[in-house]
Amino acid sequence: MPQKLYSLPSLSYEYGALAPVMSEEQLKIHHDKHHAAYVIGANAILEKLDKVHKGEIEIDIKAELKALSFNIGGHVLHSLFWENLAPAGQGGGGEPSGKLADKIKEDFGDFNRFKDEFNKTGISVEGSGWAALAYCRLTDRLLLMQIEKHSVNLYPNFNILMVVDAFEHAYYIDYKNDRAKFFASIWDIINWEKVSERLG
């Protein structure tokens, strides 16, 4: 029986639905090309590993596992990213409510301070990476996470509630090299209902 592989998730909105924050061209290339490349890359390595397990081939295990971490990380984070976006005025934008809003106020002081700290987290990612909001069960605390590439600086076993892609491929068509403008705009399409679901 063949082993299961990763697949590119479908979007729950049309390619043009996130404009003007994210244009149809930007979203289509990001999803169909960049995210798809991580799925293809991860699956290719999984298939190699299946052959290794059967004794059919030998590989540079260190290099392949590093590449697998990068590709799986890219797939998982992009999948989270698409889910925590929604068209402005149709579930996207505004502010969180309920438990998430209370937790943000408790841990960051207020929503605007949280937004400012999150933006600084994303804007200052070294090279390519992600800004993430995570929850630590042990300390009952929301924490910001600055992920480099797709798998460096992760807090192990933390619930990731929200991510925003800081790779240039996420914004270059619409914002050129102005990462700060992209992060300032993304709040208009954040799906707080989905982010809140992840907090539980």
Describe the structure.
The protein has 200 residues and is mostly helical. The protein has 2 domains: 24-83, Orthogonal Bundle (Helix Hairpins); 98-199, Iron/manganese superoxide dismutase, C-terminal domain (minor pseudopilin epsh fold). 48% of the residues lie in helices and 12% in strands. A 3-stranded antiparallel beta sheet has the order 2-1-3. Strand 1 (129-136) and strand 2 (141-148) form a beta hairpin. The radius of gyration is 18 Å and the shape is globular. It starts with 23 loop residues before the first helix and ends with a helix.
Report, as a whole number of angstroms, the end-to-end distance.
Answer: 36 Å
Order of helices and strands: HHHHEEEHHH
Structural class per helix/strand content?
A: mainly alpha
Total of helices: 7
